[in-house]
UniProtKB/TrEMBL annotation:
EC number: 3.4.21.53
PANTHER family assigned: ATP DEPENDENT LON PROTEASE FAMILY MEMBER (PTHR10046)
Record-annotated active site: S235, K280
UniProt name for this protein: endopeptidase La
MF-aspect GO terms: ATP binding; ATP-dependent peptidase activity; serine-type endopeptidase activity
Family: Belongs to the peptidase S16 family.
Superkingdom: Bacteria
Enzymatic reactions: Hydrolysis of proteins in presence of ATP
Domain Lon proteolytic: 232-337
InterPro entries membership: Lon_proteolytic, Lon_Prtase, PDZ, PDZ_sf, Ribosomal_Su5_D2-typ_SF, Ribsml_uS5_D2-typ_fold_subgr
Keywords in alphabetical order: Hydrolase, Protease, Serine protease
Amino acid sequence: MKAKRLKKIVSMLVFLILLLAFFFYPINRYVEKPGGIVDLSTLVKINNQKDKEKGSFSLTYVTFQQASCYQLLRAHFEPYWDVMSYEQVLGGSTNQESYDFLQNYYFENAQQMAVYNAFKAANEKATIQFNGLYVLDFVDGSKAKKQLKVGDIITHVNDQKLENSLTLFQVLKNEKPGNQLKLTVKRGNKTLTMDITLMKDDQNQAKLGIIIGSAIDLKTSQKVAFDAEGFGGPSAGLMFTLEIYEQLTKENIRHGQKIAGTGTMDELGNVGQIGGIDKKIVSADKAGVELFFVPKDQQKEDDNEKIAKKVAKQIHTKMKIVPVATFNEALTYLKNQK
């Protein structure tokens, strides 16, 4: 009797362990799914003043989560859940460090471009100072990886100061694969010089073998403070720009509405395409958003507008989808509302 009872207890324990593992043990797959929205008045302040106007501008985000067997199974039945490998989550970055730096860089750049465009539109002073080019990541087979590090800032090429990102490409036009390029680099508080052997690209032209981004400082006539730790990527650019403009002008461009959206922002105020648009539409709808700005499809490969409208129809949302190509288009749309 004791042996049978013990066997039964062991069987139950094994079953319980397997059941817990099925629901909670992480496997080597990730699930991307709808996340939520965040009111930007809680993340940004100008001169330490709160945004007191009615309504809200919100960013939208998606959620990445390491999957269990249960979540992997569930993903096959959830229309807006996608299963991804670790490499797909990294999105082409060579490792986790590069991915994290890239996401932080894009998010900080989105904030800078938002401030710059909002201040210009509000007739406030904002100037950009170019400091060089960030090393964001490396391409496969890059020889520069042996000497450069992610986060380095390239300030000079062959002793020529980089005035903008075009300076580097102009220098590379006159070089051949295999040539040495002298770089001056800021790494923390140190200034380093190094010779990098150039690679060959698909057109047999010389390239450094790195992914770069502009390192800039932004000076403004009023103090802008962000409290947005834990977020990353470039997709909040448009919504940050609208929130900052509202705080600067107090024009009540929201008209009391709950507004969300997505889209990158560049120096000229252009709104760029982003990823996960289907999940962001679902997130915004669940949060009760009334109006959603989406990047307008302009190039053949663009699909944000098309997917947003398709998903909006599928989920029968009452939320209005508004495609925009620029910050000015979004601003004009809001100002023309009654």
